[in-house]
Write a structure and sequence with these properties.
The chain has 101 residues and is of the alpha+beta class. The chain has 3 helices and 4 strands. The protein has a single domain, classed as Alpha-Beta Plaits.
């Protein structure tokens, strides 16, 4: 079953510049082999239920390895069972409705 999650992993108490930690999390996501798209507030990932918890755990482990003691993670899940569900398909559908695709 395919779904798209939006993942945001934020170290708490790590200062105001978080790009170093974001890069660590992005390396974990990249190594997962899952299709993803990053944006300014998080990352969208195509996955299944069995992928979510292990991926989040690995992201947390990467930050803890850097000494982060508190982490706030938000996962938004969008799931469809009636047809194939991809980020590309969602954007194509939107583009068609806006007459730009």
């Amino acid at each position: 079953m395919k779904m798209i999650i939006e993942l945001s992993v934020i170290p708490i108490g790590a200062g105001t510049s978080l790009s170093e930690y974001v890069a660590d999390v992005m390396r974990v996501i990249e190594s997962s082999g899952l299709k993803y798209e990053s944006h300014s507030m998080g990352t969208n990932i195509e996955c299944g239920w069995d992928d979510v918890t292990p991926l989040v755990r690995k992201c947390h482990e990467a930050l803890r390895a850097k000494g982060v003691e508190r982490i706030s993670t938000t996962v938004r899940i969008s799931e469809r069972t009636d047809k194939p569900y991809t980020m590309e398909g969602k954007m194509k559908s939107l583009g068609e409705k806006l007459n730009i695709g």
